[in-house]
Design goal:
Helix content: 25-40%
Distance between the termini: 47 Å
Shape: globular
CATH topology of the largest domain: Aminopeptidase
Strand content: 15-25%
Number of strands: 11
Radius of gyration: 17 Å
Strand order of the largest sheet: 6-7-8-9-10-5-11
Oligomer: single chain
Order of helices and strands: EEHEEEHEHHEEEHEHEH
CATH architecture of the largest domain: 3-Layer(aba) Sandwich
CATH superfamily of the largest domain: Leucyl/phenylalanyl-tRNA-protein transferase, C-terminal domain
Length: about 230
C-alpha cells in the first residue's frame, strides 16, 4: 500500500488502487493535497480511528448534469412555496449536520471527522468547497456540500430533516451547474438513491477522461449564489 509522504503531494496512478478502490494511506488534509487528489479522481474517506485513507473506486458513480432525472412527485417539492434553497450561506453548519446523527446513521457520520470539518471549511474559505441549504419556514431542513474544480463538482454528503429537502437541494444545484457548463457531478459510489436522479456507473478510465475534460472549464471560484430559477 502506498504511503503518502507529508512533504510530498504526489499520489500513485489511480490504476494501482485495490479492487475496493483504496489507493493510498497517510499524509494530511491540507488544501493543496486535497486539490491535487480531486484533480486526479482521488478522495479521502476514513473513520476517526483510522489513518487518512485515499480512494479511487472503479467503477465510479457519475451524474452528468444534462441527464438529470426528476420524478413527478419531486417536481411538486421544487415549487418555491415548499422550500427555499440557498448557496454558501452556512457551509460548516451543513457539514456538521451531515456528520451528526441521522436516521440511517444514529451514531453520526464518523467519516466526517473534526480534521475533515476544518479542512473542508478551509477549502470553502478558499472558494473551492460549497454548500446548498434547504429551508422551510425559516428552519434549515436539509442540504449538501462538495468540492468544485473547473467544470467538475465532487459531491461529498447530504442530510435531510424533512422529506425531499436534500433531494431539492441536489436538483437545484445540478440545474445551476448545468447552466454554468459543469460537465459532471462525481457521486463516488453508486447507489439506488443517486440512480434515481440519473447517475450512472462508468469505468474509472472513462471517469478520468471525463474529469480531465471537465477540469479545462474555467474555474468558478468564490462564494456562489443561484442565478437560475
Amino acid at each position: 500500500m502506498f504511503r503518502v509522504n507529508r512533504h510530498d503531494l504526489r499520489f500513485p496512478p489511480v490504476d494501482r488502487a485495490s479492487p475496493e478502490g483504496l489507493l493510498a494511506v497517510g499524509g494530511d488534509l491540507c488544501p493543496e493535497r486535497l486539490l491535487v487528489a480531486y484533480r486526479q479522481g482521488i478522495f479521502p474517506w476514513y473513520n476517526d480511528d483510522q489513518p487518512i485513507l485515499w480512494w479511487s473506486p472503479d467503477p465510479r458513480a457519475v451524474l452528468f448534469p444534462d441527464k438529470l432525472h426528476v420524478s413527478r412527485s419531486l417536481k411538486r417539492s421544487l415549487r418555491p412555496e415548499v422550500f427555499t434553497v440557498t448557496l454558501d450561506t452556512g457551509f460548516r453548519t451543513i457539514m456538521e449536520q451531515c456528520a451528526g446523527p441521522r436516521p440511517q446513521y444514529p451514531e453520526g457520520g464518523t467519516w466526517i471527522t473534526r480534521d475533515m470539518l476544518d479542512a473542508y471549511t478551509r477549502l470553502h474559505e478558499l472558494g473551492y468547497a460549497h454548500s446548498v441549504e434547504t429551508w422551510q419556514d425559516g428552519r434549515l431542513v436539509g442540504g449538501l456540500y462538495g468540492v468544485a474544480i473547473g467544470g467538475a463538482f465532487f459531491a461529498e454528503s447530504m442530510f435531510t430533516r424533512v422529506d425531499d429537502a436534500s433531494k431539492v437541494a441536489l436538483v437545484r444545484l445540478v440545474t445551476q451547474l448545468h447552466a454554468w457548463n459543469f460537465r459532471l457531478i462525481d457521486c463516488q459510489q453508486f447507489s439506488s438513491h443517486v440512480s434515481r436522479f440519473g447517475a450512472e456507473e462508468v469505468p474509472r478510465t472513462d471517469f478520468i477522461k471525463h474529469l480531465t475534460a471537465a477540469l479545462k472549464v474555467p474555474h468558478r471560484r468564490g462564494k456562489w449564489t443561484f442565478e437560475t430559477v
